[in-house]
Amino acid sequence: MIVAVSVFELHIPAGRNLKEKRKVIKGLTERLHQRYRVSVAETDYHDLHQRAQIAVAVVHQSRSDVEHLLERIREHVEEAPGAMLTVWEPFFVEEMP
Predict the structure, then answer these.
(1) Is 11 helix (H, G, I), strand (E, B) or coil?
(2) At residue 28, does pLDDT exceed 90?
(3) Residue 86's closest CA among 60, 40, 59, 52?
(4) Nearest Cα to Cα of residue 83 among 19, 31, 18, 9
(5) For residue 42, what pLDDT is reported?
(6) How many CA atoms lie within 13 Å of 64's alpha carbon, on the beta-carbon side?
(7) In CATH, what number is assigned to the domain containing residue 59?
């Protein structure tokens, strides 16, 4: 079993207040969870209007499948309306018992 966590830092250009930012982030996290069946959470920059960080956790049997899935998720985040991807950091934890 392979465990991976991917961290995405985002710029929210139209985030004039936290309510507008939350709308963009909530929509993105819900779409990622529903489409890819992964765990998603906002993990940092909670009080900034135009900056956000989300993390995605994935568990799968194959490392190549996890890498492919994380790449698809990255592409989805890059195309997200209202958000611009600034940093992407995938982390892998190898074989888990």
Answers:
(1) strand
(2) yes
(3) 52
(4) 9
(5) 92
(6) 0
(7) 3.30.70.1120
DSSP sequence for 41-81: EEEE-TT-SSEEEEEEEEEES-HHHHHHHHHHHHHHHHT-T
Residues 84, 65: Cα–Cα separation, whole Å = 25
Q: What is the pTM of this model?
A: 0.84
Residues 6+ apart with CB under 8 A from 2: 59, 60, 61, 62, 63, 66, 92, 93, 94, 95, 96
The predicted-structure confidence for 7-27, as pLDDT tens digits, reads as follows 999 999 988 888 888 999 999
The domain tally of the chain equals 1
Q: Which residue has the higher pLDDT, 17 or 31?
A: 31
Query: Each residue of 43-52: pLDDT tens digit?
Result: 888 888 899 9
Look up the domain containing 87 and give its range: 2-93
- Looking at residues 25-39, what average pLDDT do you find? 94
